[in-house]
Amino acid sequence: MLNLRALDLNLLVTLDVLLAERNVTRAARRLNYSQPSVSVHLAKLREIFGDPLLLPGPRGMQPTARAEELLQPLREALESLERAVAPARPFNPAESQHTWRVAASDSSGSTILLPAMSAIRAAAPATRLAVLDLVPSQIAKQAEQGDIDLAFHTDDGSPPGLRRRTLFAERYVLAGRVDHPRLHPQLTLAEFCELEHVIVSPDRGGFHGVTDDALAKAGLTRKVVLSVPQFLFMMSVLASTDLVAMVPSRLVRSTKVLQIVEPPVDVPGYEMVMLWHERSHRDPAHQWLRETIAKSI
């Protein structure tokens, strides 16, 4: 059994960072230590635990089974200790120099972050905001490791175990260029299916989406002739061609170059949520950012 009274807390902090980075050089940089100092810490930790903990591998250092067992309990223990000793100070946005990192798609960036930018810059002019590409499969890991503060995703399919707040309910509308020769408010279902459609593919390069699921229930199909990865490119395509698209209504509510009509098919909408890790839930700065974004929508 380890003697906690004789154990240097700094060694546990080093171990936590090493398990996260799995690289002595990066760990040293993150801890603001020299590389030899981190190596000395690792040697002491190996002696204390009677285990090599991290072993050389083809893609950096690989944790042993004992290290894998330590990973989560150690992180939780250090987070609890950090909360216990951290001074409780109110957040002053006017003086803050925070750098926030959020994960967003191009559509959620336009509909959520863009409306909030003026309020954030006016109240917290010395802060910075980094917007990262949203990778749904990485949200939980990035939030757990502190790589992101917030993520914006549809409620359906969001990773479990994260705090969440519903920002708005979204619905789909049909959009095409203003002078589109075949797009009009009384569009029939047959006319809808004959139009040439562009889709932002949820599976990167696919030609099938929720609209096609809805049409299939009625035994119908549409002409999807273009698949793109982002809404920004899609918007340019719509404005310069005769292609049309089913798009989230908030994305096109202020456009002057597109014609928006109600589609003749009932396509289920979705709820957009803001996600964050439990570690940030009570942080005053994080609370301020969440409230500022939510109030700006």
TrEMBL record:
Does the keyword DNA-binding belong to this entry? yes
* Entries under InterPro entries matching the protein: LysR-type_TF, LysR_HTH_N, LysR_subst-bd, WH-like_DNA-bd_sf, WH_DNA-bd_sf
Q: Which residues form a coiled coil?
A: none
User: What SUPFAM superfamilies does this protein's entry cite?
Assistant: Periplasmic binding protein-like II (SSF53850), Winged helix' DNA-binding domain (SSF46785)
Mind telling me which PROSITE patterns this protein's record contains? HTH_LYSR
One Pfam entry for this protein is LysR_substrate
Which GO molecular-function terms appear in the entry?
A: DNA binding; DNA-binding transcription factor activity
Q: Where is the HTH lysR-type domain?
A: 7-64
**Entry's family note:** Belongs to the LysR transcriptional regulatory family.
Q: What is this protein called?
A: LysR family transcriptional regulator
Q: Which organism is it from?
A: Massilia aurea
